[in-house]
């Protein structure tokens, strides 16, 4: 694709791209989601991207299939309970090596036992069907443990830890915490004032004690956690110490956990 297109040629290519995207959505069920806060791709780059998608879809529909186990050469494996620790580690290392050589990557968001990872690969990943021929250049397959075995409790704990880290990072000019709150215009507007009150905050410790999940029409969670941090005013002339139990409620919004309410211990 020629990168030196004039404006008329670029506009023509943009129109072509839009038509191709509509066709892919109607015929293949593709979804193209554009972030209004992000700049759009140059039309020539987007055109190459669409070429890539169309090639992939043709492969997916017409290409012969084989299992991932067959794809990586059908290595022999035993039941995980039959392996000692050394055999388990050697087998896992071999599996990851063979998978990566074929651009297949398996991982987990949270730490899981090696024996469980071995079981996951042999029971859940190896039977998966993939293309017989090699993937397109730059393409990879990614399998995540939590996609198969979601852990809501760990998700909630990870979210509250991430949120508090962003909230207390007053040097963060982007204020990342705001993207993790469900309502900042009314009930949680005080979070802005809280951050603006301090020039520096030193987080010492945080530990989640309990998580309660309510699986009703809307998925919600309650979190109880201990937290300790010191907050300093401008010039570090005044210090407020926060040390005690905090409470938060979260709500699942389209698969993302967002903070609904937050209650911090009183400052000393």
Give the number of domains. Answer: 3
What share of residues are in beta strands? 25-35%
Radius of gyration: 25 Å
State the secondary-structure class: alpha+beta
The largest sheet is: 4 strands, antiparallel
* CATH class bucket of the largest domain: Alpha Beta
What's the total helix number? 8
CATH architecture of the largest domain: Roll
How would you describe the overall organization of this protein?
It contains eight helices and eight strands, in the order ααβααβαββαααββββ. The protein is an alpha+beta fold and 268 residues long. It has three domains: 7-62, no CATH class; 65-148, no CATH class; 152-263, Nuclear Transport Factor 2, Chain: A. Strand 7 (239-253) and strand 8 (256-263) form a beta hairpin. The longest helix is centred in the N-terminal third of the chain and has 22 residues, at 7-28. It is extended, with a radius of gyration of 25 Å. The N and C termini lie far apart (64 Å).
């Amino acid at each position: 694709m020629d990168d030196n297109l004039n404006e008329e040629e670029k506009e023509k290519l943009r129109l072509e791209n839009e038509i191709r995207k509509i066709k892919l959505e109607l015929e293949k069920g593709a979804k193209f989601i554009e972030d209004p806060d992000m700049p759009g791709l140059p039309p020539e780059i987007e055109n190459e991207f669409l070429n890539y998608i169309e090639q992939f879809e043709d492969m997916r529909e017409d290409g012969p299939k084989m299992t991932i186990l067959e794809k990586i050469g059908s290595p022999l494996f035993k039941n995980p309970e039959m392996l000692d620790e050394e055999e388990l580690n050697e087998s896992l290392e071999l599996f990851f090596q063979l998978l990566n050589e074929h651009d297949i990557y398996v991982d987990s968001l949270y730490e899981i036992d090696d024996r469980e990872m071995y079981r996951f690969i042999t029971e859940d990943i190896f039977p998966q069907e993939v293309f017989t021929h090699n993937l397109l250049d730059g393409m990879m397959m990614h399998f995540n443990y939590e996609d198969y075995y979601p852990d809501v409790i760990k998700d909630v704990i990870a979210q509250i830890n991430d949120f508090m880290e962003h909230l207390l990072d007053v040097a963060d000019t982007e204020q990342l915490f705001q993207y993790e709150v469900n309502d900042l215009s009314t009930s949680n507007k005080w979070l802005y004032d809280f951050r603006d009150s301090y020039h520096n905050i030193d987080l010492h410790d945080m530990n989640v004690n309990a998580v309660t999940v309510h699986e009703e029409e809307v998925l919600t969670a309650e979190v109880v956690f201990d937290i300790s941090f010191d907050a300093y005013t401008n010039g570090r002339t005044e210090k407020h110490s926060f040390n005690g139990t905090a409470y938060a409620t979260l709500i699942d919004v389209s698969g993302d956990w967002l903070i609904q309410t937050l209650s911090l211990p009183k400052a000393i």
